[in-house]
Amino acid sequence: MSVFERIGDLIKANINDLIDKAEDPEKMVKQIILDMDKELVKSTQALGKAMASERQIKKQYEDAAAKSKTWEDKAKMALTAGDQELAKKALSEKVKVDEQANQFKTMYDTISAQTETIRTQVEALKGKLNEAKSRQAMLIARSQMADTQKDLSKSLGGMGTSNAFAKMDKMEEKIQRKEAEADAFAEISGSVPEEDPFKKLESDSAVDAELARLMAEMGK
How many CA atoms lie within 13 A of 152 on its CB side? Predict the structure, then answer.
């Protein structure tokens, strides 16, 4: 696959589709950037070579055109001097140089068109690379957020909310039984704290009041 076929593939590539297929989207995005950087370097080097060839052929064409004019000027000088044979010799050389100039012109036009195509492809790759770099941070952040949400969902799903509360209810029941056992042992061992005498007086007073009320109602 040529450099420019590879460039075309990268330009047409849908980054999101590649990420969907990747096991590690973050690494995939970074690798895409690296690949495009490498291709940009290669394509820029290829453009430089094409431009050098274009300049070289242009120089050869211009030199041939200059020689053609020189032979034409010599032919004019010969005709001015009345020497047609010398003029024909000069024009014969001019015809040879013109053929070379035409060949160089054809080559120059072809190479110039190819160079322009390469330049367009390089600019397109630069644009895609800049777009990929600007989206890189956003795509990685989205990937990390998705991983976080996925892990959290797994944790919540594995824990089971209802199961967790059921376990807490069982623990509360165990604690209540332990508290009841502690109270029972305390009562058996006589370590139950003595009743507050003031509370007993209040209770006796309330009982006496109720008794007086009932006796009054019954006429006793």
Answer: 6
Query: Against a cut of 0.85, is the pTM above it?
Result: no
12 and 98 share one domain: yes
- Token pair, residue 130, equals 């800049």
> 210: domain range?
164-218
DSSP 116: H
96: which 2 tokens? 């040879």
What is the per-residue pLDDT across 11-47, written as a single tens digit (0 to 9) for each?
555 555 555 555 676 777 788 888 888 989 999 999 9
Q: Are residues 45 and 144 in the same domain?
A: yes
Contacts of 186 (CB under 8 A, 6+ apart): 192
| Main-chain dihedrals φ then ψ at residue 81, nearest 5 degrees | -80, -5
Q: Which residue, among 13, 47, 58, 60, has the nearest Cα to 33 in the 3D structure?
A: 13
Render pLDDT for 129-183 as a digit per residue (tens, 0 to 9).
888 887 877 777 777 787 788 777 776 665 555 666 677 788 888 888 878 877 7
Q: What total of structural domains would you count in the chain?
A: 2
Same domain membership, residue 141 and residue 123 = yes
Dist CA 61 CA 105 (whole Å): 6
